[in-house]
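Supplementary Data S3. Sequence and structure tokens for construct A.
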Amino acid sequence: MSETDAQHRARLPGAVYDLAIRLGVNPDDNRSSVTLTQTGRMKRSLDDKSWMAFTAAQTISTHASEFDWLAKFAPFGLISARDALKNGVGRLDIMALGVIPINRANHTPALVRGELMRYLAELAWAPHAILRNTTLRWREDGPETLTVSAGADETASEVILSLDREGRIAGAYASDRPRSVAAQYLPTPWRGRFSEYHQRQNIWIPFAGEVAWEINGKSEAYWQGKIESWTIA
């Protein structure tokens, strides 16, 4: 059953509720899914000097910590990638021609933690989840900083959200996001940045983003993208 506005206010820290309202969320809006498309570029690994262009489509749940991102890479979209989290199960597959497996991540708590952190960071693209996803745990850490967490035990995940001068989400940071290194996952500082806010369906959404690992104190960007379309239903 959906919460009332009074229940939102009672459950959430005031700064978290205010963030959702500032981004344009109507407390009575119970729509459940964001759909967006992206263009951008990313690196296969941090050692690569070259970038691969991609187009992608993504859905993000506003009621549960779930998303599904499907990207196709140039040239001709022959290589595709699916990054997803559903019912607590993480998925990261690289395919050729849409059917031939190139790489498939094993289902581990580390994979789920990484996917949960992605979901938490991307609340900037699904601000309705700030009110609607009751599984999220929030903490105020200052006038321009909020911490959001999800999961439990081995999958417990936390992301720090920083706000810009307009009070919108400008960045996301995790000190220990699992990074795939050889045959294991290494906890590594990880950061996302958001910019170019525009209104769609009365909601403020950042239309540009960048993601980076922080290696030996240096920021190493590996993903840069632009939002081409955004809808909620």
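Construct B, processed identically:
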Amino acid sequence: MQTNLADCAIGEEIEILSISDDFIATKLIEMGLTENLKTKVVLIAPLGDPIAIDIKGFILSIRKSIAKKILVKKADQK
């Protein structure tokens, strides 16, 4: 199921599909957030902003406004 990162919950495994803003995409790619990356949402602040994801052991915190521009695919729940 495709959605944006801002709509994911803690513990959900996701795959990054695309980043809709080219300016932000460049910065996120430099930090390791690339297309086809399989990752997991590890933390969401109490008011929903920011959202933290695990990138190969590195925790990246992303503002909700930016997370809305990141299209992800949720992993199938078994």
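Helices lie at 22-30, 64-67. The mean pLDDT is 90.
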